[in-house]
Design goal:
Helices cover 29% and strands 16% of the residues. It is built from seven helices and eight strands. By secondary structure, it is an alpha+beta fold. It has a domain of 159 residues: DNA integrity scanning protein, DisA, N-terminal domain (YojJ-like (1, 3-Layer(aba) Sandwich). The protein has an eight-stranded mixed β-sheet, with helices on both faces. The chain is globular. Strand 6 and strand 7 form a beta hairpin.
Amino acid sequence: MKQTENDPARQPDEASDPLLEKADQPSGVAYESPLPEPIAALLRELCMSEARINCRVLEKVIVLAVELAREGREGHKIGTLFVVADSDAVLERSRCLILDPLWYHPESVKHIENPDMRETIKELAQMDGAFVISDKGIVLSACRYINVVANDINLPLGLGSRHMAAASITRETRAMAVVVSESSVVRIFDAGEIVAEIIPELWMLSRYGLSISRPFTMSRRSTSDKGAPAG
């Protein structure tokens, strides 16, 4: 397939970078999180399941999402969506709403742990669309419209299209999603369901802790789903 100028999969050749090497651990490995228990235990459960998610990357995305929910931007509450892992499948099921602002920037500056990248995400989060993040922590694309069918997705009343997109893409792919709500709640999706909710105010009260509740049954994908493409 001919790559277009706006194709986030097209990247320049990269020299080795310490930040990338640090994040280049196999998905599902036992990562020692600095987050307190039981938060770290929940992250390990999510990451170790079917060995498909890089726990360090997921943690960094969650921390960034909580910062966005708590701080907003320019004095305004904002909402956004992060889709983590199985990036090829996610890119195939989405498209940019504008010319991709992250196109052709080197991977070394697009890592989720890069402070400049994190500030860039906070600016771009004011725009519509999702961020697609690879299992290595590279923010591949921004402002993407998730184009998947939402049939048979059941979410609590009051949650909008951003949450529906998160549920749909995690059901159709092996990715997980982190949603920042304009009501300042962070929700984590896996296999089409909400598996965790984070209250940023309680994050502050416990300094670097999270309050994660699991009001919904955390069901894992069936054995028949294991043939889905991996990220």
